[in-house]
Amino acid sequence: MSTATMGVAANLADAHARIAAAALRSGRSAQAVRLLLVTKTVAPERVLEAVRAGQTDLGENKVQEGRQKAEALAGEAVRWSMIGHLQSNKVKDVLRFAGEVQSLDRLSLAVALEKRLQFLGTGLDVFVQVNTSNEASKYGLTPEETPAFLKELAALHALRPKGFMTLATFTPDEAEVRRCFRCLRDTRDRARNDAPQGAALAELSMGMSGDYEWAVEEGATVVRVGQAVFGPRPLPDSHYWPGAAGAG
Ligand SMILES: *Cc1c(COP(=O)(O)O)cnc(C)c1O
């Protein structure tokens, strides 16, 4: 059966089993890898099915959708992560629902988050987003820029850097995808030796529905999975209604 016809709970159990098997292949326990369930475009009722099945960590790519879904699921024991590109003027809104930002990709954003967190008197777990694919269209620091960035982050005391996040090259070429994952792992390993944050930089957020088993084999501690649990995302509105905004 495909992910579209199986239930959310069954798909989630299947993903957990695959993660556990891949973790064992990499010499780690299943508990070493966290499944961050990506809920973008998925209605709150279907997200709730996953929560009822025991899922607690949820990820959203856009601030407004994240806020709305977090409000719809208020009262549930869930924790939201922001995983998409974040504009500095959305910092206030993201901090209303997210307990973690995995898409920290520039100093100006770090400074904006710090300022708001100081005002709120709280801290925030962050992941530094690294561009491992060399694609100009992707956000994130280059591996070479990362050490200097970590030094700057050390002065921002409300931010708690936990590790690194990447999006691999969008290709079916396993060797290229694994190269991206290894690049992130190498970036982390160097940072753990050299960066002011040292061993606190443990996390590797990498792998999505199509490649999360490879990512776990390469050392992922967080995988960000959506479609493997919820089924394929619908195509954009412009596909269904030619002439709608965004068509062509
Ligand atoms: C949507 C998204 C994912 C999950 O992609 P799936 O194909 O649904 O597994 C992972 N990371 C980011 C940053 C995303 O935007």
Automatic annotation (TrEMBL):
InterPro entries: Ala_racemase_N (IPR001608), PLP-binding_barrel (IPR029066), PyrdxlP_homeostasis (IPR011078). It comes from the Bacteria. Signal peptide: none annotated. Coiled coil: none annotated. The keyword Coiled coil does not apply. Keywords: Pyridoxal phosphate. Residues 31-234 form the Alanine racemase N-terminal domain. The modification N6-(pyridoxal phosphate)lysine is found at residue 40. SUPFAM superfamilies: PLP-binding barrel (SSF51419). Belongs to the pyridoxal phosphate-binding protein YggS/PROSC family. Pyridoxal 5'-phosphate (PLP)-binding protein, which is involved in PLP homeostasis. This is Pyridoxal phosphate homeostasis protein. It comes from Pseudochelatococcus lubricantis.
